[in-house]
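FAQ

Q: What does a record look like?
A: Structure on top, sequence underneath. For example:
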């Protein structure tokens, strides 16, 4: 594996870091508290090429590799994990799915605006009764000749209210199990498509997570992605790449909290010396640095394999398990290093601790990742 960072990689990382520190940081506490979607900030991320980073420039994307994506996701997530989940879903679930498996017409109509950051995409797999057990889809899409008639409910959908376009997974033939599942592109505004309630969340509060309702929505046949029956494999394949994005989000949450803890430990004095001179604090920082570095290497390895077009299903799952566990304990310990100040909003670490938890749940829980890893090593 060669993950030597190039000049281009470092430039992408620096641009993301500047944007996070200068544009995202000033309003992040307020957006979290008010649950305000970062519309203006996402628009600017689009102008910088961060909403369709890996998309071919001929479809309006940045033409960058997955390593660049990991570096950018880490920097944005250090400061604003709400922004980074919007970015991650758009890049790796929506854009990548359509670019890899869509038709030329679908790419021109639905990929180009999202890759340019002019429209936002969403990915709708989860349902009230189908989360980890993703094959038990109850949303149906019945073939009516020129169109499919879509009925059902999706929940927990990131970008649910702010997206213009939605990849929706639905059952077209119950008898065929997962081989009777298809993926469709649905437009906001199609008759019968209703954006339902917005969730009031523990973390990533500025991202908008909604229930979506489909009541006799007529989806044109040409909006199906791939061959008939390809929808479940499509979802699994797309999620494998998406998990690199969420692992990088967890990495950024952890490294952001660690950086804050290091800086604070140099400022704060107790018993006549900076607190980092107490070995209990110094060792905590050493453990944080070790696990953050291990998380980064796992993310970069999965990204490198993806860029080499080598199967990375196991590696993206490993990166997500490890980085999300690291995010949980590093953020908790970063609050501890800050003492009482860590418990209030203005020091940022309490938000990072709340944001960390979701990385163990979405795009496949930690337990689901272990299913993927164990099946791979045992087969
Ligand atoms: N690529 C292509 N095909 C794949 C695949 C992959 N990575 N993984 C599995 N498949 C194929 C299998 O080969 C199999 O096909 P065949 O029968 O033809 O061999 C088919 O898919 C079914 O696979 P499994 O038998 O492994 O399916 P399963 O029912 O045992 O489920 C699972 C496996 C890993 C638990 C899967 O259901 C899963 O990943 N669940 C979690 C769902 C999830 O991650 N949801 C996230 C929603 S999006 C989100 O959360 C976004 C966000 O928050 C921001
Ligand atoms: P369940 O599947 O009911 O799991 C409950 C518990 O049981 C978990 O601990 C799980 O790990 C465990 N479990 C289940 N099966 C097994 C098993 N076989 N072995 C061991 N343990 C098991 N989904 C989308 O489609 N698109 C999105 O954009 C999206 N965004 C989200 C944003 C947020 C903020 C949240 C909270 C969720 C989002 N999701 C999205 C949904 C997310 O992917 C699911 O919540 C997740 O996959 C888990 O499904 P579930 O909540 O139904 O939990």
């Amino acid at each position: 594996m060669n993950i030597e960072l190039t000049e281009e990689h470092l430039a992408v990382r620096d641009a993301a870091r500047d944007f996070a520190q200068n544009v995202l940081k000033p309003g992040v506490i307020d957006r979290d508290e008010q649950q305000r979607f970062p519309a203006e900030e996402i628009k600017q991320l689009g102008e910088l090429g961060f909403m369709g980073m890996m998309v071919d420039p001929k479809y309006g994307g940045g033409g960058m590799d997955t390593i660049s994506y990991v570096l950018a996701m880490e920097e944005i997530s250090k400061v604003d994990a709400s922004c980074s989940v919007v970015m991650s879903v758009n890049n790796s679930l929506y854009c990548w799915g359509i670019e890899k498996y869509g038709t030329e017409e679908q790419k021109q109509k639905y990929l180009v605006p999202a890759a340019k950051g002019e429209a936002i995409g969403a990915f709708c797999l989860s349902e009230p009764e189908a989360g980890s057990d993703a094959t038990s889809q109850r949303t149906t899409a019945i073939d009516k000749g020129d169109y499919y008639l879509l009925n059902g409910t999706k929940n927990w959908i990131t970008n649910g209210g702010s997206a213009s376009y939605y990849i929706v997974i639905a059952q077209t033939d119950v008898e065929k199990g997962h081989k009777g599942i298809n993926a469709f592109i649905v437009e906001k505004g199609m008759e019968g498509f209703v954006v339902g309630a917005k969730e009031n969340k523990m973390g990533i509060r500025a991202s908008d997570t909604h229930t979506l309702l489909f009541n006799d929505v007529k989806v044109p046949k040409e909006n199906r992605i791939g061959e008939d029956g390809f929808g479940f494999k499509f979802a699994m394949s797309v999620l494998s790449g998406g998990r690199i994005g969420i692992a990088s989000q967890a990495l950024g949450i952890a490294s952001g909290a660690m950086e804050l803890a290091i800086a604070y430990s140099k400022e704060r004095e107790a018993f006549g010396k900076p607190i980092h001179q107490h070995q209990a604090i110094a060792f905590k920082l050493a453990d944080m640095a070790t696990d953050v570095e291990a998380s980064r290497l796992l993310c970069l390895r999965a990204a490198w394999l993806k860029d080499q077009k080598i199967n990375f299903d196991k590696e993206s799952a490993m990166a997500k398990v490890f980085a999300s566990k690291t995010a949980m304990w590093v953020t908790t310990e970063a609050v501890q290093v800050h003492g009482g100040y860590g418990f209030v909003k203005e020091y940022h670490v309490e938000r990072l601790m709340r944001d960390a938890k979701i990385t163990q749940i979405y795009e496949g829980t930690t337990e689901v990742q272990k299913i993927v890893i164990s099946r791979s090593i045992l087969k």
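Q: Is there anything notable about this one?
A: DSSP finds eleven helices and ten strands in the chain.
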